[in-house]
Amino acid sequence: MDFNKQDTVLVTCARGIVPYLIKEAEGLGFSVESEHDTGIEIKATLNDTQRLNLYLRTAFNVLYLLKKFTCRGPEELYREINSIAWEEIIDPKEYLSISSGTQSEHIKNAVFASQKAKDAIVDRLVKKCGSRPDSGAQRDNVVLNLYWKDDTCWLYLNTSGKKLSDRTYRKIPFKAPLQETLAAAIIQATGYDGSVPLVNPMCGSGTLAIEAALIALKRSPGLLRNNFGFMHVKGFDKEAWGKVRKAAHAGVLKKIAKPIIATDIDRKAIDAALKNAQTAGVESMIDFQVCDYRKTTVPKEQGIIVLNPEYGFRMGDEKKLETTYKDIGDFLKQRCSGYTGYIFTGNLNLGKKVGLRTSRKLIFYNARIECRLLEYKMYEGTTKIKVSGCCLN
Ligand SMILES: C[S@@+](CC[C@H](N)C(=O)[O-])C[C@H]1O[C@@H](n2cnc3c(N)ncnc32)[C@H](O)[C@@H]1O
């Protein structure tokens, strides 16, 4: 397969993250042709997808368009896919996985679409090469994504393979961990670049602190992985990929200028966070402490403090949490002067109990839950506002 041929590349992400993904893609020199709720389209080669997979912090998958075609039924799907020169793309020794998303009256369900697409590919390979790849749900080798909407199909080579949110460092998830890509977007939204202290009380399994450390060190998240979908495509040049990785390594800083402090009241959370940070290779960059969030060391200078308290749907009880959110407001006001404070929550009512004026409220989604990243500028003399009224901020 030609790794230098430019085509449409769809980079997918979670809802609410597109603005951060656009910034990242543009930072890598790509211009965004269109944006959707959960992704962006750019023009790129398969070689470019290697850089995208390596550097992007907020993306789920980097999908290289193989074919877009009109399709009004399973037999047409079979014909269109069977006509692609798969013998130039997939070695029969590889393992093939296809996932489909369908929204069309022409197909019963997505599983059937995947089956039909797989038959079209393996039949062609048997005819041309005399053997076929095994296939199934494992996403470690060749991965294809099919989208079928009304009369149109898009067939993509998934150059990521497994989702890029699977950084591989989170060996111990602890309770209600944030997805790594969401944590990276939250840190990006704070503007953090390593030049000021970052304090993360209630750190749980440490995802926010670990993503912050990776950002501060300029360490690409893809350096943590050694397997991507593009590696299993015919024409993959191991040596060229080695150079791309080497260039990414060369940009990594040895240490960070200002501390990252992560604390949690639960010893098990800190054990998990430490283990995860070790796997990510950033444990020496983060000062982990077991303590109530109010006892967290907050360096006396300007910095960023970010908390992701429980929000009552999955853990904790909402009534009890009202006091917690109010107390977090007091803690920010009394202990964090000079800081920009952030609370990430999926419970907007609890957010109002903080009792501080927000300077920004950014929308994110944690799985299906609509969340807010609430920003508070903690100037000297910031006062709390009355919580009993209907409109706070
Ligand atoms: C929603 S979880 C944070 C998840 C984290 N962002 C992650 O990605 O793993 C909230 C954390 O707050 C911690 N916590 C609850 N009350 C606390 C308190 N008073 N002081 C410090 N930590 C507390 C819990 O132990 C839990 O780990």
Describe, in plain words, how this protein is organized in 3D.
This protein is of the alpha/beta class and 393 residues long. It has 2 domains: 7-158, VC0802-like (2-Layer Sandwich), CATH 3.30.2130; 180-221 and 253-377, Rossmann fold, CATH 3.40.50.150. Helices cover 31% and strands 24% of the residues. It is built from 10 helices and 15 strands. The strands form 2 sheets. Strands 2-3-1-4-8-7-5-6 form an 8-stranded mixed β-sheet. Strands 11-10-9-12-13-15-14 form a 7-stranded mixed β-sheet. The chain is elongated, with a radius of gyration of 23 Å. The structure holds S-adenosylmethionine (SAM). S-adenosylmethionine binds at residues 174-178, 201-202, 204-205, 207-208, 264-266, 269, 292-293, 308-310.
In short:
The protein has 393 residues and is an alpha/beta fold.
Keywords:
VC0802-like; 8-stranded mixed beta sheet; 393 residues; alpha/beta; binds S-adenosylmethionine; 2 domains; single chain; 15 strands; 7-stranded mixed beta sheet; Rossmann fold; 31% helix
